[in-house]
Design brief:
13-stranded mixed beta sheet, 7 helices, alpha+beta, 19 strands, two-stranded antiparallel ribbon, 375 residues
Length: 375
Amino acid sequence: MAETSTSFKCPSCGGPLDYKPGMTDIQCEYCDTQFTIQALEAFYAQKEKMAAEAQNARDAKWETQKAGQEWSLEEEQLMRAFTCSSCGAEIVCDENTMATECVYCGNPTMVPARFAGVLKPDYVIPFKKTKEEAVAALKEFYKGKWLLPDEFTKNNRVEAIQGLYVPFWMFDSSVTATATFKAENDMVIDTSSATIIETSVYECIRRGTMAFARIPADGSKRMDDSYMDSIEPFNYEELQPFSSAYLAGYLADKYDVSAEENEPRVDTRMNNSAVAALEKTVVGYMRVAENERAIVKNEGRVEYAMVPVWILTTRYQDKPYTFMMNGQTGKMVGSLPYSSTKALAAFLIVFLVTFAALYFLNISHYMVVLLAMFL
């Protein structure tokens, strides 16, 4: 029968531990930390428990097949879809829209095709902000950004803003999370010959069950995830059962990222939020860092919704710039160009001010030295 060897590592520094015959404690030869036999057994029992939980954690599936509904024949007849010949975006609109402008690249497009082949949303958040409010918000977004090129603010196509309903998957689930954290406190001891810093290291174990409701993930490849995350949150209390009547006067993007494709992103977001909530309970320490985590997810529900976004695509020096505003709350995000001339001027101003300050400080220093010599 093969023998199984067991090795222990110091919880403090990671060095190997050896038991010395006749000793009641085990002392690490590398950091001199002492442990009782009982403390080490408890520490490694906890590690084995977390490893078993992580190994046996059930990879529960999201119930994505229940998200969305089927369109009725009447609803399909009222909807149209088009694919932009310039950038390939696929956009949905109502039956009265015969020509429009692609919200992604600004290309004028005819709308010939009927809408079919995708799920009907469960919910919609109607637009609350008007086009005029979106224009005003964009102008407000420019304020205070004095590195903007003058030509950009004068010539951008503010009136080209288009309202777009963006497909969103909303995930509901709960998790049981266990995490260990390394916490440290320092004690400073001053002696006549040296300053000694004594660090106490603690392992903090936290466990909890948390429920998450309507974690959003956009279903469009062309919508920048960082932008969509930035214009959150949406007020889900204003969700309405979907009706195509809400699309009148607006466009709607067809989803091309399925709920299943969004699962890893949502799982990561949910797990990080759970561990962050546990970490907030580790208080009273100077430093805290996560060591390990074990998270078990229960089966989750998925719903399909459309959320309102105002989009502006403009060009400056042949480069497109896109701005997005939450059509419910008015939160605006976007990337802006900068004037290299203004940036250089700003650098020179900072350099000259800094140089003048240092020059003045040196003159002042010499004056103080001279005064001290004569007094």
